[in-house]
Amino acid sequence: MKISRSPHRPRSHRHSRAVFSLVLASLLALAVLLACDQKSGRGGKQGGGGGNGEGDSDVVEEKVPVEVSDVKSGDVTEAVQANSTLQSHRTLVLVAKTPGQLVELPIVEGQWVEANATLARSSNPELALAVERANAQLKRVQAEADRLSPLLKKGYIARAEYDRAMAEVEIAAGELRRVRSAASDVTLKAPFAGVITHVHVELGAELAPNTPIATLVDPDDLEAIVQIPERDLGRLVVGQKAELTSEAYAGQVYPATVSAIAPVVDPTTATVKVTVTLDTSAKATSVPGSEPIPIADADERRTLRPGMFVSVRIVTATRNGVKLVPKRALLFEETRAYVFRVVDGVAERVWVETGLAQGDSMEVVSGLELGNPVVTLGQNVLKGGTPVKIVRKDGEPVVEDVSEQIHATTEGN
């Protein structure tokens, strides 16, 4: 019997071998990739491509680069803050006391004047005539009284007649004083030293009584009135230190004092009015870490002016020598705060209790000690036990030991 072979079997056999070769190549490629991945993750020596598997136990987690800052000692203050507009405690609108024409006005807006300086003078011919008439009347009645005096002594006239003459002298003298005072009122003088902030009239104007002439402000007696929430009232007392700052003079802090606290709370806003007075006896100080704007005015007391917008900070508590960390180092889980402290190159999660804030720093009441390095940048990808590499400390780059770099480079080659 003749046995015939199928012509298709050899092709099936060749197909199976091709599939097997493809699978084998894929497995080899996967093995190479795994080997490369293990090699790149090793923390110790890196072997060649044909290793015997030794060193697999040396594979460690890659170090995370971080920036750290040491826990430092410093002072913190608790404060209540608000905004306000500066105003002068002594602002006076000077007015004309008598009618007349303004004949002298030697002032301009912004001018500094001393106390008792002449600010304006008006002319009133009627007042001058009134002074002359009053003076003449006084002389006449005085002469009559002088004539009657010896007659009284000789008994030629009654005492009542002489008393009437003396009464007329007193009336005439009073009238003369009145018209002289009115005549002197045509000259307006400064009651205190200050700055002319506004001139309300022009030279030659006809003045009536109580016509505004100029506004005089004492720039050395400035105050800011702020509205403080009722909840903070218990932290405020008269005499507390305060600080004023203005965008016009960024970087400058002006000392002030709480001078008054309103006895009532505004029920519509639930706030209390607090008056803060600028301390002109002390000079302004610079904000730490800032570059103050140069002040052109040689008299620092007059840099702040009425009408300026200012920020008011009332210091309610001060603590000295506390532990401080940068605010950016803090992380939060619900209401609890924690930081990552670096110990022997490993990030350690530490729960902390915070206190008062001071600028970019936060007081740490418990959990850390002075000098502890805490992570300030890169902490969002950390967890407890993560190896870290400090690349910056307190804002300065950290330079690695040159010998370690040479050793690592040699072994890598």
Overview of the molecule:
The chain is built from 4 helices and 23 strands. It has 413 residues and is an alpha+beta fold. The protein has 4 domains: 64-74 and 321-412, Beta Barrel (conserved putative lor/sdh protein from methanococcus maripaludis s2 fold), CATH 2.40.420; 77-89 and 219-293 and 300-320, Elongation Factor Tu (Ef-tu), domain 3 (Beta Barrel), CATH 2.40.30; 92-122 and 187-217, Beta Barrel (OB fold (Dihydrolipoamide Acetyltransferase, E2P)); 125-185, Helix hairpin bin (Helix Hairpins, Orthogonal Bundle), CATH 1.10.287. The strands form 4 sheets. It has a 6-stranded antiparallel barrel. Strands 21-1-22-23 form a 4-stranded mixed β-sheet, with no helix packed on it. The protein starts with 8 loop residues before the first helix and ends with a helix. The model is unreliable at 1-14, 27-57, 295-301 and 401-410 (pLDDT under 50).
Task: Give the helices and strands, then pairings.
Layout: H1 9-40, E1 64-70, E2 72-88, E3 91-95, E4 100-104, E5 112-113, E6 118-123, H2 125-154, H3 159-184, E7 187-189, E8 194-199, E9 206-207, E10 212-217, E11 222-229, E12 241-245, E13 252-261, E14 271-278, E15 285-286, E16 309-326, E17 331-333, E18 336-343, E19 346-358, E20 361-366, E21 373-377, E22 388-393, E23 396-397, H4 402-412
Parallel strand pairs: 1-22
Antiparallel strand pairs: 1-21, 2-11, 2-16, 3-10, 4-6, 4-9, 5-8, 6-7, 8-10, 11-14, 12-13, 12-16, 13-14, 13-15, 16-20, 17-18, 18-19, 19-20, 22-23
Number of strands: 23
Instruction: Give the overall form.
Output: rod-shaped
Strand portion: 35-45%
Gap between N and C termini: 73 Å
Widest sheet: strand ordering: 2-11-14-13-12-16
Q: Any guess at the CATH architecture of the largest domain?
A: Beta Barrel
Overall pLDDT level: 80
Q: Name the CATH homologous superfamily of the largest domain.
A: Efflux pump adaptor protein, beta barrel domain
Into how many domains do the coordinates divide?
4
Helix content: 10-25%
Give the C-alpha Rg.
46 Å
Tally of helical segments:
4
Low-confidence stretches: 1-14, 27-57, 295-301, 401-410
Judged by helices, strands and strand pairing, the structural class is: alpha+beta
N-to-C series of helices and strands: HEEEEEEHHEEEEEEEEEEEEEEEEEH
